[in-house]
């Protein structure tokens, strides 16, 4: 933001760096509604469940047989 220098004058810092982050108000960012509909899972959650099911090699519906050594 300041031409590759280690020090940036305050005015230039405000104009080039801080202004881009001040586009949204505190209330907009910190008081956002985090409510989700019940029963809905995020894409990442669904992907994690699917991968763990595939990698485990077991079906959750069937009990795993016990093998004595």
The parts where pLDDT drops under 50 for at least 5 residues are: none
Average residue-wise pLDDT? 71
Terminal CA distance: 65 Å
Beta-strand proportion: under 5%
Radius of gyration: 25 Å
In short:
The chain is mainly α.
Question: Care to describe what's here?
Answer:
The chain has 69 residues and is mainly α. It has a domain at 1-33. The protein is built from three helices and no strands. The chain starts with 9 loop residues before the first helix and ends in a 13-residue tail after the last helix.
SSE diagram, text form:
Blueprint: H1 10-21, H2 26-30, H3 43-56
Provide keyphrases for this structure:
69 residues; mainly alpha; 3 helices; elongated
């Amino acid at each position: 933001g300041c031409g590759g220098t280690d020090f940036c004058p305050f005015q230039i810092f405000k104009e080039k760096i801080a202004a881009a982050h001040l586009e949204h108000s505190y209330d907009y960012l910190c008081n956002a509604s985090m409510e989700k509909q019940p029963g809905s899972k995020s894409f990442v959650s669904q992907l994690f469940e699917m991968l763990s099911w595939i990698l485990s090699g077991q079906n959750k519906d069937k009990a795993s047989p016990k093998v004595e050594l």
